[in-house]
Amino acid sequence: MSQSELAGGEVSPSYISLIESGRRMPSEEIAQAIAERLGVPLSEFGVVPPAQANADERADLVRRLVVARSARAEGGSAFAAEELVTLVDEADSLGEDDVAWEASWELAETYGDLDQPVDRDAVLRRLLDDPLTNSSIRLRARVAAAIAELAQSRGRLPEAVRAAEQAVAAAAELDASALEWCRARLALIAAYTACDDLDRAGDALHDILDRLDELPTDRLRGLACWAAADLHVATGHPADAVPLLERAAELLPPRTDLRQSARLALTTVRVWLATDRPADAVDERLGWTRHAFSMVGTEADRVQLAAVEATVLARKGLFEEALSRADDVRPAPGLPPHELAESLLAAAEVQMAGGRAADGEKSCRRAAELFDETGTHRRAARAWRTLVGLVAERGER
Fold it and tell me: The HTH cro/C1-type domain covers which part of the protein (predicted)?
């Protein structure tokens, strides 16, 4: 009998194929239906007693979760997501709540890999309401921190602050060696910094820097140094950010996460441009960043790269090339509006210097509007002041 003939009702031909290959354990109801179509007793079809069946079903779920994680680690995020969606549904139906939770968390992380923020948000919201999440301070802190990170990446800064504060509150009883304690505080520092709430960002940063050596991984220590550097830049002290970025680069090497390392390198170039770093060093680091993004960068990464390259080219007097790169600064999937605004300000400076005053004013105005829309009022005020100055300067010509 063919797979199509065996299929029917809730059983698809593809599901029959998975059962035949050993990648699925059929439920008793599905096994009964297939046995009837084959014309054999259920016992001859190989159905095991319920207790053993439950154990075997759980083992199969766990095995498939491991396979999905391995696929994701090897770059197969699309396959992993498809498998995890099915796995969550099956684990739920079997009452395997802990497996369903772990599969849902892995699915949320996989949607992050695939740049599917809406799907990631939906999974995280379900996890936040899951009874298992609310039974564990670690799980609640982990989910709330992830929601904060996602909200910030989408420009929802007040929401990011609220979720990060919830994560920190949930992790309050943990010590600095706990991953959840670190992730919650890093999310809070990033959210406060993005919202221009720099005093509270500084207070939160002191908590983590005072315990830097207690943090459980080099990655977390590197991210803490990076967060401290961002705060120094935001408070107008870019020179103080340089040693922190150098330390972060040591702790976040390219071999562990090339895209993250490239993003850190681009941040470093921005800071160097504000601290009169030698041009040769800037060109070398920027060239490495460009090459890395050509392999692993997103469209959002390339927009931010364009803004920095436009600035570097303009400083060399290469205005034709600089203006061309400034024109590449535009909205992109995954680029938060407040970060697009920063790139637009850089583009505006290049456009004004290159003789395209109207374009410069347009870029500056849009940056100010984006800052206002996301609630970053300190930077919005700076952008509006810059725009007023540009308009006045243009009127004097």
Answer: 1-45
